[in-house]
Structure to design on (448 residues):
């Protein structure tokens, strides 16, 4: 039974690669970004609070404050969710509404947590948190098992390219740590995720409130031989796709940069550069780049950040680039690997998660925000809606309602420089904006 209940299902092929010191605080050096998601009252905020406390990442005054607040509410134990539920409405209702980000570190690793809301109404906030995560912790209440929101969050994690999943079966103390109940939940979840594609799933039984199997392994669970949550987080691989993917640098703006101030004989130099964040790949002095969409080529003559020169920069780094010849470049253009260019696309096929309470209107124009370019677009066709419980592709709908996931084809009024989401998270995704209210109404990942 021990082997059976050490529930780790591996169907992925994650890989790691070394990185230079210049990127010491980025995901290439081991920073793990993860989210917690699940249904309402599954204990997400409590789990994060307990994890922060048990790893020594809660200040003494903060601990005293939440202890006093818990006592005022007549609670016998500390309400750990107070560490992450910062909005007044969240504390009054006892639910998470907005995404709460927290940073913490251990001797082995640094982490950024996104605590996503569990209520179905706020699924859109989970999409925001998951878009930059390397791993997702999906909580399940041991008394309730896998529910619709569990499947929805698992599907969204899959849709957004998260291949490392943790099934945290919480509140095991309330069912007396029954191994048969735990295993039934694990089997049901693995059966569902197995139909989505390649993932690695680590199942962990725990009690967030008591801290059992959270930061230290629980010896009182003889039938479970796997890691505690923190052990798994400290050893989980970090995505390397941004570093390995072809160069993509969406231009945010054109700037004039002054390096040096002429003091102490130092020569001040000024140059015209193109500012943006590297979505993927690496950029070095002397590299040849293609300026898209016109396709002209040039070499990198200068690379700087915060008024100092660099020899090279990697993914997730904001830089200013100067080229060795004058080219007409503006916001929305992109510096790319000349051997692996993005597609110049005026039509997109994408999986869309509709986030607005107002349904999709096929007759309206919407605004597509893709990287640093914004263009008008129309929805041409909805191919099918995904049933998150059965994963069945339902018949082509006439519209999309809030939290619907649909396959859609869009026609753009101007082209964008796109990759498939599977190869590049930044250039393979976009948001849909209502041009009247300027509200974000949907998020999409490009299929082709």
């Amino acid at each position: 039974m021990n082997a059976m209940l050490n529930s780790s299902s591996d169907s992925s092929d994650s890989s790691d690669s070394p990185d230079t010191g210049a990127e010491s605080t980025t995901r290439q050096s081991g920073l793990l970004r993860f989210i917690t998601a699940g249904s309402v009252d599954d204990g997400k905020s409590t789990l994060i609070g307990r994890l922060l406390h048990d790893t020594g990442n809660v200040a003494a005054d903060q601990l005293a404050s939440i202890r006093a607040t818990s006592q005022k509410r007549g609670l016998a134990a500390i309400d750990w969710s107070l560490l992450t539920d910062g909005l007044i409405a969240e504390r009054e209702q006892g639910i998470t509404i907005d995404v709460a980000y927290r940073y913490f570190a251990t001797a082995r690793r640094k982490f950024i947590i996104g605590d996503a809301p569990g209520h179905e109404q706020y699924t859109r906030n989970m999409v925001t948190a998951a878009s930059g995560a390397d791993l997702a912790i999906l909580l399940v209440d041991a008394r309730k098992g896998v529910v619709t929101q569990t499947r929805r969050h698992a599907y969204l994690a899959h849709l957004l390219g998260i291949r490392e999943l943790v099934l945290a079966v919480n509140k095991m103390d309330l069912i007396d740590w029954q191994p048969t109940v735990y295993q039934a939940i694990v089997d049901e979840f693995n059966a569902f995720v197995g139909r989505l594609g390649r993932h690695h799933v680590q199942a962990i039984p725990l009690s967030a409130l008591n801290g059992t199997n959270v930061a230290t392994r629980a010896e009182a669970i003889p039938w479970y031989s796997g890691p505690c949550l923190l052990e798994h987080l400290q050893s989980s691989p970090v995505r390397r796709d941004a570093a390995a993917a072809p160069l993509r640098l969406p231009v945010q703006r054109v700037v004039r940069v002054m390096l040096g101030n002429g003091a102490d004989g130092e020569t001040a130099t000024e140059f015209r550069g193109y500012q943006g964040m590297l979505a993927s790949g690496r950029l070095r002095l002397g590299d040849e780049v293609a300026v898209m969409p016109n396709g002209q080529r040039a070499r990198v003559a200068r690379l700087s950040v915060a008024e100092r020169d660099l020899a090279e920069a990697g993914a997730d780094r904001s830089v200013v680039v100067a080229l060795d010849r004058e080219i007409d470049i503006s916001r929305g253009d992109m510096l790319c690997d000349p051997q692996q260019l993005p597609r110049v696309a005026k039509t997109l096929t994408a999986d869309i998660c509709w986030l607005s309470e107002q349904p999709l209107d096929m007759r309206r124009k919407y605004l597509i925000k893709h990287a640093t370019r914004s263009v008008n677009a129309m929805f041409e066709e909805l191919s099918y809606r995904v049933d998150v419980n059965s994963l069945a592709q339902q018949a082509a709908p006439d519209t999309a309602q809030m939290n619907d996931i649909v396959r859609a084809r869009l026609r753009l009024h101007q082209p964008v420089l796109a990759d498939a989401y599977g190869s590049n998270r930044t250039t393979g995704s976009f948001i849909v904006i209502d041009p009247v209210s300027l509200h974000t109404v949907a998020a999409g990942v490009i299929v082709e």
